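Thread: "does anyone have the structure for this chain?"

Original post by V.I.:
We have the sequence but no experimental structure in hand. Need at least a predicted one for the grant figures.
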Amino acid sequence: MTALEAVSDRPAAAGQATRDEALARDVVEGLTRSPKRLAAKYLYDALGSHLFEAICELPWYPITRGERALLTRERDAILARLDDPATLVELGGGNGEKLAILTAGLAAQDRAATVHLIDISETALARAGRTLARHSSIAVRGHRGSYADGLRAAVAELQPGRSAMVLFLGSNIGNLAPSEADRFLADVGAALRPGDSLLLGTDLVKPEQELMLAYDDPLGVTAAFNRNLLVRLNRELDADFEIEQFAHRVVWNAQESRVESYLVSQAEQTVCLPGADHCIRFAEGETIWTESSHKYRPDDVVDMAARAGFAYGAQWIEPAAAFALTLFDAP
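Reply from O.Q.:
Generated one for you, tokens below.
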């Protein structure tokens, strides 16, 4: 049996204290800006991770189904790019089900592999570890922390002379502003070595009505996912958000090619966050921008990675879901 060998790269108590301080600092900085913002990474506490898994199963949210279909269809072509034994590094992989498509293929080929999982969510790491523990030939290493910290920790463990493939799936790159995405890819490229590669999943531009349903579904799951951020702040910063006083709103910004998610104050109100030593005033109708989900055209993806020095390897598109997987060689 394979087990998740490490959940955190630092002692638990010190790591928790550092994360609490970072949350308080980021929340104050974001809510005192104009317009108000909260970082999308804080959506993914334990409940948020479960809600996102539910979103991925909704009929109006094709991203996960499209990516699974692509990984299944192109699995052998992807695995052919890996050394033997193989090394995979996944950034923010959720419950590990997509990566499991590749590890099952490796196991079927009687190939051994080491998988490094990097996520800020302890719940996601634990679930992914259990998912990938089905094959004794797959060793799993977990790194809890930011993508940058986790990637540095993973790369430090890689064997010299053996290439690794980094996976950044689910169109998570779309949560970053264009300048942030450029910087992120440059940082990933700088951390990798000649011979390493990057597999990037990106959601493509599609009709506005489809996008609106994907991010504001009739069942209200995405609304619950967004509003759970306030539940988290109530719990971790002792805040007094009245959840029913904030509504979920989604906007398609065609000029910027992104879906924007907001929490909208339904009344003039003041919210106090003792854990951050701040109180914040909200006007009626004032918004908190919680997430951006950029959508791409196939050539946009290639150009974005090229700006960071990556060389194009291959691109596969699932037309029904309008989703792309693109493989790049490290700088």
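V.I.: this helps a lot. The two ends are 36 Å apart (CA to CA).
O.Q.: and The first helix runs from residue 12 to 31.
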